[in-house]
């Protein structure tokens, strides 16, 4: 292929400014733009796209991007699912990459297909070793797990670490993390670093060793629910009732409870009942990270912080957006790793549909990308 032909076939990638309320992340950062430029990719960034993450246009320009209209690009990379008006701005035959919510927002899938746009959902990337660098769910869950503990410490009426002072010794707080995936493990590690006595629980027994490796105790309720793809399966009615009874008894002994349990495409399971909250010591805190899918606490009000029975219950939504610098940096690496998998040696878009990662993460497909 001649240099002129290669230049014509180079892929253009557009980075729009996120329009969702409270969304401060950006899909690419300057360091990743430089990497993509090295692969022969042209990057167009909408003016102000990085401001929420404290990245001015000038840094994108210095990295080799141009400032302009991102919607006419071959590939548009986003964080949040595109709104209907945004889908209308995508070029027929183009590709969009982002969190597209295929299980909870089927109307987005229908709209992308109707618009003739190929869609790759970051949350649909298979959790296999080869795709770890593209696992945006994990990278953003790390941010959420870390920030959840800081929120709990801020709202707690008690110290996290043990303190020995001239006035006497203060016992360390006790923290229970329910759901020990990526967010849960990060929450355990962060709570431990802050000095609390930590305990983890999950219906998947194989994660017990991971919990103990962080210096935390394992709460064994005698209920197992091993599922596929690294997630827990949904419990039966009998298992759920037994779990709740045992959890109610255990939860009352903790100062802080952080919940992270989600089942993809389903309502979040109820782990912390109203009765359990009522039994907690006044001043205790529950941070519910499953608010987007209904919440793990029976008294959760998604997006709000409330006090019930003298216990603070916080359910922040889109927590990674509250730490936009590092969250954007991690997410941009995930997007870049997926995008580079689709490029040929000249920087042209040439997805190999026999590749498991691409085949499973693609939720709509047009003739132009076939």
UniProtKB/TrEMBL annotation:
List this protein's GO terms for biological process: NADPH regeneration
What CDD domains would the database entry show? Rubrum_tdh (cd05304)
Xref: SUPFAM superfamilies: Formate/glycerate dehydrogenase catalytic domain-like (SSF52283), NAD(P)-binding Rossmann-fold domains (SSF51735)
Reactions listed under catalytic activity: NAD(+) + NADPH + H(+)(in) = NADH + NADP(+) + H(+)(out)
Q: Does the keyword Nucleotide-binding apply?
A: yes
The main enzyme category here is translocase
Primary role: The transhydrogenation between NADH and NADP is coupled to respiration and ATP hydrolysis and functions as a proton pump across the membrane.
Name the record gives this protein:
NAD(P) transhydrogenase subunit alpha part 1
Gene from which the chain derives: pntAa
């Amino acid at each position: 292929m001649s240099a002129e032909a290669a230049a014509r076939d180079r892929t253009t990638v557009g980075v729009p400014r996120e329009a969702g309320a409270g969304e401060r992340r950006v899909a690419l950062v300057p360091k990743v733009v430089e990497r993509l430029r090295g692969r022969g990719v042209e990057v167009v960034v909408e003016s102000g796209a990085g401001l929420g993450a404290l990245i001015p246009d000038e840094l994108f320009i210095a990295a080799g991007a141009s400032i302009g209209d991102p919607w006419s690009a071959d590939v548009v990379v986003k964080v949040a699912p595109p709104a209907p008006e945004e889908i209308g701005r995508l070029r027929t035959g183009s590709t969009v990459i982002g969190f597209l919510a295929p299980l909870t927002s089927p109307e987005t899938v229908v709209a992308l297909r109707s618009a003739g746009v190929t869609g790759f959902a970051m949350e649909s990337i298979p959790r296999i070793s080869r795709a770890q660098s593209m696992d945006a769910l994990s990278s953003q869950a790390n941010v959420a797990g870390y920030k959840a503990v800081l929120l709990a410490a801020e709202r707690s009426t008690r110290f996290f670490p043990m303190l020995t002072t001239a006035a006497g010794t203060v016992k360390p707080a006790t923290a229970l993390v329910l759901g020990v995936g990526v967010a849960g493990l990060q929450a355990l590690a962060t709570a431990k670093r802050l000095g609390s006595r930590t305990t983890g629980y999950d219906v998947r027994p194989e994660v017990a060793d991971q919990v103990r490796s962080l210096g935390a105790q394992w709460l064994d309720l005698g209920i197992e629910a091993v599922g596929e793809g690294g997630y827990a399966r949904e419990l039966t009615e009998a298992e759920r009732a037994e779990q709740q009874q045992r959890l109610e008894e255990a939860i009352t002994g903790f100062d802080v409870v952080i919940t992270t349990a989600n089942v993809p495409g389903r309502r979040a399971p109820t782990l912390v009942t109203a009765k359990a909250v009522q039994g907690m010591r006044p001043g205790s805190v529950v941070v519910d990270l499953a608010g987007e899918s209904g919440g793990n606490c029976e008294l959760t009000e998604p997006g709000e912080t409330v006090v019930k029975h003298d216990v603070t219950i916080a359910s922040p939504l889109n927590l990674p957006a509250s730490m936009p610098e590092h969250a954007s940096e991690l997410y941009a690496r995930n997007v870049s790793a997926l995008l580079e998998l689709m490029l040929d040696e000249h920087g042209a878009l040439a997805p190999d549909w026999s590749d498991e990662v691409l085949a499973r993460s693609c939720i709509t497909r047009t003739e132009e990308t076939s």
